[in-house]
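Review session, final week

We close the course with one last complete record, chosen because it touches almost every idea we covered. It is Aspartate racemase, a protein from Mesocricetibacter intestinalis with 230 residues. Go through it on your own first, then we will talk.
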Amino acid sequence: MKTLGILGGMSPESTASYYLNINRAVNRRLGVNHSAKILLSSLEFEEIVECQKSANWQRAGEILGIQAKLLEQAGAEGILLATNTMHKVAAQIIANISVPFLHILDVVAQRIKANGLQNVALLGTSFTMSDSFYLEGLKARGVTPLVPDEKARGEIHRIIFDELCLGLIKTESKAFYLETIEKLRALGAQGVILGCTEIGLLINQKDSALPFFDTAALHSEMAVDFILDR
């Protein structure tokens, strides 16, 4: 069994789901009292949020790169970044480590294509829905993302930071997300990428006829395969 290093805390809510999902999956596969070998670096989220607000991605990358290196030095044989948005600085993290980096877009695109789909709605933070690191990253992997209009992107972003990251689940916010999905479905979306690791706290596959691709769940599966060397 390999030891996985997780860069977490962005937010604590989604990191907790990663931790539980990975350990439960390892236990299902191995039985008895087996669990995953995990080293966790839980960052101070507000420090990262301030970097996002000021567009100081260089500083954010330095912070994450340093923590990734510390995880490697502590014995991590691979690094997982438990957030979609901060994959914007994945290159800086990779430059700081000599062990594998488990990139979230690799597993998401792979699963979408395995389902025979190409045009997929993308929900996430404003950075994820607007910036090239995610949009072009998907296209380079053979997936075409469809994003909401600017006003809807702003509300989706607000709900993530003001509610989901704080563990607040509101009925009206769920309704807004599902309404947005239906609009994208009318534009040709064949599925939905839950492109923020907190969104799965609000909506799930039972809420829509379109197939959901929960990035946190898929990333956790990728982690389990790595840990068990499969």
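Two points worth writing down before the exam:
The domain at 4-103+217-228 is CATH 3.40.50.1860 (Rossmann fold).
The longest strand covers residues 3-8.
Good luck, everyone.
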